[in-house]
Write a structure and sequence with these properties.
The structure is a single chain. By secondary structure, the chain is of the alpha/beta class. It has one domain (about 5-245): 3-Layer(aba) Sandwich (Rossmann fold), CATH 3.40.50.720. The chain has eight helices and nine strands. It has helices spanning about 15-25, 35-45, 55-65, 85-110, 150-165, 195-210, 230-235, 240-245; strands at about 5-10, 30-35, 50, 70-75, 115-125, 170-175, 175-180, 195, 215-220. The strands form two sheets. It has a seven-stranded parallel sheet, with helices on both faces. A two-stranded parallel ribbon has the order 7-8. This is dTDP-glucose 4,6-dehydratase. It comes from Phyllobacterium myrsinacearum.
C-alpha cells in the first residue's frame, strides 16, 4: 500500500495544489524546496521539507533515501511566470537541464531508496507536427529547430529516463498549458491545449492511486491532444477544482 510520497517541487505551481490533495488522501509527504522560508511554510501545512537542489545528486539521494517513499513525484520546472521574452531563452535552457540532469538524479535517488514508481510532469506540446489530434503514441518533435529543440530534447530525455529505467514503473503526465491560481495565467494563449492547475494536480494524485506505467495526455479538451487515456485509466476529471470541491 502506498503511504509515503517524495514530491520534488512541492512549492511550485502544481506542487502547491497537489500537496493538500495528497495530505487529505492520507499520504505522508516529503517535499523539496531550495528555500528555508518555503521549508517553514511546508512544515506548517504538514509536509516534511527537504531543502535540496535537484542538481546536488548526493544530497538529493540522501533526502530520498531518508524519506523511504513509495512514490517519487517530479513537478520541478524553472519557468517562472512573468519573465520577459528577452530572458525566456535562459529559462528554457535551465528548464531543459532540470528535465535531463535533474530527472536523472531523481531516478538514481529513487532507485537508491528502493522506490519503484515515479511520476513526472511533462508537456503536451512537444509532439512532431501532423494533421489531426495528438495521442500518446505519436512521436515527439525531435527534429525541431531552436529554441524548440532545447525544450523537446529535455522532454524526451526526461521521459525516457523514467519509462526505460529497469524496475521503474514510470508515469508521464503530459500537461497542457497551465492556468489558474499560482500560474500567473487566467487563460493560456492556446485555449485548446489548456489544463487548469487544479486538474493538473489531481491527475498526479490519480496517477499515484490508479496509474499504470506509461504516458498520459492531460488537457481539458481533445481538440489538439486527446486525453481519453487519462480519463479512462486514471479516472481523471478535467473539471476538477479544489475550491469547488471543498
Amino acid at each position: 500500500m502506498i503511504r509515503k510520497i517524495f514530491l520534488a517541487g512541492a512549492s511550485g505551481a502544481v506542487g502547491k495544489r497537489l500537496v493538500p490533495l495528497l495530505l487529505e488522501a492520507g499520504y505522508a509527504v516529503t517535499g523539496t524546496t531550495r528555500s528555508a522560508e518555503k521549508a517553514a511554510s511546508l512544515r506548517q501545512i504538514g509536509v516534511e521539507p527537504a531543502i535540496v537542489d535537484v542538481f546536488d545528486a548526493e544530497k538529493l539521494a540522501a533526502a530520498v533515501v531518508e524519506s523511504q517513499p513509495d512514490v517519487v513525484i517530479h513537478q520541478l520546472t524553472d519557468l517562472p511566470y512573468g519573465v520577459s521574452p528577452a530572458a525566456m531563452k535562459d529559462f528554457i535552457g535551465r528548464n531543459a537541464r532540470i528535465r535531463s540532469e535533474g530527472t536523472a538524479n531523481l531516478v538514481r535517488a529513487a532507485k537508491a531508496a528502493g522506490t519503484g514508481r515515479m511520476i513526472v510532469q511533462s508537456i503536451a506540446w512537444a509532439y512532431a507536427p501532423k494533421a489531426g489530434v495528438f495521442v500518446e503514441t505519436d512521436p515527439l518533435d525531435l527534429h525541431a529547430e531552436e529554441p524548440r529543440a532545447t525544450t523537446v530534447g529535455g522532454v524526451a530525455t526526461m521521459e525516457q529516463a523514467v519509462l526505460r529505467e529497469p524496475g521503474m514503473d514510470g508515469i508521464v503526465l503530459r500537461y497542457g498549458f497551465l492556468y489558474g491560481p499560482g500560474t500567473g495565467v487566467d487563460m493560456p494563449a492556446n485555449p485548446d491545449l489548456r489544463v487548469h492547475v487544479d486538474a493538473a494536480a489531481v491527475a498526479a494524485l490519480k496517477a499515484v492511486e490508479r496509474g499504470a506505467g506509461g504516458i498520459y495526455n492531460v488537457t481539458e479538451t481533445d481538440v489538439v491532444a486527446n486525453s481519453g487515456k487519462a480519463r479512462d485509466t486514471l479516472g481523471w476529471d478535467a473539471a476538477f477544482r479544489i475550491n469547488e470541491r471543498r
